[in-house]
Design a protein that fits this description.
alpha+beta, PmbA/TldD fold, five-stranded mixed beta barrel, 20% helix, globular
Length: 442
Amino acid sequence: MAENIAEQILEEALKQCGKADVLMEDIESLRVVFEHNNLKSIETKQMTGIGLRVIKDGRIGFAAATDLRKPGRLVEMALEAARFGQTAAFDFPSPPQIGTPVKVFDKRAAEFQLQTAIERGRECVETALAADEHYDCSVEISKSLERWRIINSAGLDYSEEATGFDADVSVLLVLPEGGLLWIGEGRDGHALCDDIPAFAREALRKHKLGEKNATVTTGTYPVLFLPKAVDVVLEAIEVGCNGKFIQKGVSPLGDKLGERIADAGLTIWDDPTMDYAPGCGTLDSEGLACDRKPLVERGVVRNFIFDLQTAGLMGVRPTGNAGRSFADMPAPHYNSLVVEPGRRTTAEIIAGMRRGIVVDQVLGAGQSNVLSGEFSVNIDLGFLVEDGRVVGRVKDCMVAGNTFSVLNSLVETGSDREWHGAMLTPALLFDGLQVAARSDEE
């Protein structure tokens, strides 16, 4: 990365406008992919990019480039864009007070080698084939090293070095009666994943549970969403608390601040403070300090998230939730979403179910309408529970409901939590959800 290119661009921009910020990223990445039990590809990339945002005559202009040989051209493009840009409702922030930085750099992840990635991928494949030679295993392992820096006209100059590490393993089986059963497991974050083959073992465990089919008829059931599927019922809250949708007047929660929308057993935090977690960080991408805040606390809406512009348009304080890459304008963005746990483990909750459905994976977004809270999704991997025992896999079923009704039928949250994407969540048990079985319609 050129040592002073960011300063050159900011200095040149400020000759023609009074306010600007520059975000610069330098990213190195390695990606190893196995498909159909074989090594398919190895990819390495290196990219440096820079984004310039200006405020000229009260309007926002933005431009980005990966060719840094002509910084003056980048300034020209940003100033030209400002002629047609949105009216600025903010000023760039001055340097914040920073306490102990959140840890986002893991030396072990940075030193993770290509050969080790290949070995871990092969271990996953061998684990699957040792269980059944008909299994089809795919593995994707990637690591990245990112150096980013933000400077602005208010004196902010902050830089950070972060590692990224992602591992995903899937095991597929062509079923004797036709169709496919695909089960995927994985995790991403800033820290090295120590046991990647564990994802293969977990997928195989669920394959074993799904060997026997169970018959389900259309009706209402208690439904336990495992962590991988919880986003189905929480997505409407994620959208509803996002300042972009509030500012546009389409959020279903825009007028619900301070009101109860869910059972008192539900508390959701936006938490950037956990070391190495996906989405964690010390400052957001506009240079504001990140902090831990409840979105929903004991069922009550407590906070929305804003970047500088949406906060200014709404006349509220920004929340340190700006997300962007060098190539994008900032927008409200969650850090890490964290659902508070309950008292009993997932296994204990299942043991207490008389008859119900466990949903592990869903297929696509179905007929969901996030803004209204309606969801209707196919159960890609689910199980029938009878008298506290999993008796078989359910097939050709859909689960449907309205998030804001379903959240008031929350029975219990599990005590054990898992990361999926940037969400740390336990299993959630709801009562009285509608399950439709396709066999009833034939």
